[in-house]
Write a structure and sequence with these properties.
By secondary structure, the chain is of the alpha/beta class. The chain contains 15 helices and 10 strands. The strands form 3 sheets. It has a 5-stranded mixed beta sheet, with helices on both faces.
Length: 365
Amino acid sequence: MDSQKLIRKILDRDRKILKKDFETEPIYGEVESDIKIIADFTEYSPLHLGHRYCMHESKNQVPDSIFVAVVPGPLERSGRGLPYIMTREARAETAIAVGADIVVEGPPMGIMGSGQYSLCLAKTFMALDADYIPRGYRPFPGFETILKRIENGIGVAPKPYKIVDMESKEIILNGKLDEDNYVIVSLSKSMKKIGFDFKGKFIFVKRLEGVSGTKIRESIISGDLDATVDMLPPETIKILKREIDKGNAPLHNVRDEKGILERVNNITIGDIKSLTLIDNTTAETLVNNRPFNTIFDIEKSISQGFSRHYKNRVMSSLEAGIFKEGVHNYIDRYPSVVRILKYKNKEILNEFRKRIPHRRLEIWQ
């Protein structure tokens, strides 16, 4: 399938899914099994040896458990504002092939602020009643102290250029964190905010050296998969090559150009301002500079924001066409449904159904 058509099909389908999820209330019941749940959130774009290492390390520490991979999600856009290398169906298939037991759908990262999807992730772990949450981290002087606090159930909040203990208000680190470490800290803050007790739940795994998701994506996009093939499990390589042969990958730089141009050139300034992630200045700039003939012209007119990913995130918002009010309703109800993308076998699926308190389960079709 032509990649443009595939992206358009995915976006049209996922807008309908999100509309339903905006309006659905979650239902909770009793837990009917005592098997342990390991729940991990990872994009798997694509699943590399570092992901496999973290998965297997946590499974070795908690044998006879169910490993649940939380894979985002509707609209197929990352927190960086870019499409994933492969669809979530293919990424879920890879997770099961490498060792996950269940794959559930995570939040639509590309149309949310980092704090918003961190909050959704915290709600996901609560909905799954997760016993353990593995997270890869990059060690550096002072970060072990932060991890110790989180291990003890203390929320740690990222502030501008400092990290703060949420209980004592003590500044425990000056400076910024890289992406992996930031996710851990932000997640602890969100879990504390919703009242989820995470004491003793985190399994921290040092990142595997010599594996770079960025380098892998660059090699795939350039058509030189062999350059980083030693960073990928054979299961990922097999599925990735199959998706490339079918024309379903790589999707990393594919946009719905027609949809973006139509939206930016025709909707009112009020509607542009109401789209997620778009501030008033950006909206006014877009309206003042239209009509646009290419999405490259649109991207050039977007000023550099507070994040190096800002332009891509704005482009994803224009592409999705989701309003802020809808996202706020979605977060309030999240997760309205636990959507199962893939599972190892029916025995695992039945045990999973009994184990989690969320009673709105949906098998992805």
